[in-house]
Amino acid sequence: MGYIKSAALEETGYVVLDRYNQELDPKEWLDIEFVDWKSSGETRFAPLASKEGEIECNGFWHGQNPRTDKDGVWIPSQVEKAPNLTRRAQEPGANVGRCRVIELQPTDYADCLYNLHQDDNNRLNPDGTGWVVRGFFNLTDDKESYFVLRENRTDPSIEHRIALPAGAQLIVDTQRLWHATTHNSETARYCLITSWESGPELDAYIAKYNGKARVPNVEVSQDILDAGQAEQARRIAERAAYYAAKGKAEVTAMSEA
Asked: Model confidence over 104-160: pLDDT tens digits?
């Protein structure tokens, strides 16, 4: 039967929506509670919706009554402090799974390439239902930073680099695309990440905000690109050798991300 997927994401695996004026909204991410949770860099997360409505970040397939990344339970203490972020996550009307704000410390391009990963959003997702994708709403004004997307982790020939000013909005099939962020800054980056179920509601939301399957790449010098690629190859080989020595395979899917 297959999964229900958004045609808008078929070409590149992502769409960039119209930018919104984040400066009009309060900085609610400064008030909510964060927990230590590592994902592709030095990070913390502040969940707004989780499996059981608790302040934790585990995948929904952990613990009792395992399920896919859908039917998230909103956390009252967090929602009370972040009503605008909650409203924005709920606006598409699509089923919401995990919803949280990520805090990412500065990360250069080489680190970003090493941190590239695919998510495990659709574990236990029943066939014939909506494919889970993720929305990314950039909250801080990170003009020198960019989201990196690749179909192949180690192949730089097709690399999308998406700018991240305040109010940047994109939806990504993060189980298809390898992704991470280059965050060139001296301060942390904050971004709202929401798991949404694909279907007519999400399709309408993408159309409403003029989702584009291609945008111009952020320009990066060839020296930085080449050095980052070389460093990624070196670190991957080093990590593979470490796991091989222990008789294990390297884990690349960020099932909790």
From this structure: 999 999 999 999 999 999 999 999 999 999 999 999 999 999 999 999 999 999 999
Half-sphere CA count of 129, side-chain side, radius 13 A: 15
| CA distances from residue 153 to 133, 146, 159, 174, 229 in whole angstroms, order as listed | 19, 17, 10, 12, 10
Q: Rg (Cα) of the chain, in Å, rounded?
A: 18
pTM of the predicted protein model: 0.94
Interatomic CA distance for residues 141 and 138, integer angstroms: 8
Contact 139, 191 (CB under 8 A): yes
DSSP string over 185-254:
SSS-EEEEEEEEE-SHHHHHHHHHTT-BS--PPPP--HHHHHHHHHHHHHHHHHHHHHHHHTT-PPP-EE
Q: What is the pLDDT of residues 155-208, one digit of tens each?
A: 999 999 999 999 999 999 999 999 999 999 999 999 999 999 999 999 999 999
For 195-222, write each residue's pLDDT tens digit: 999 999 999 999 999 999 999 999 999 9
Structural domain boundaries in the chain: 7-219
Query: Is the torsion defined by CA of 150, 151, 157, 162 positive or negative?
Result: negative
pLDDT, one tens digit per residue, over 72-97 is: 999 999 999 999 999 999 999 999 99
d(CA 23, CA 71): 30
Architecture of domain 7-219 in this structure = Sandwich (2.60)
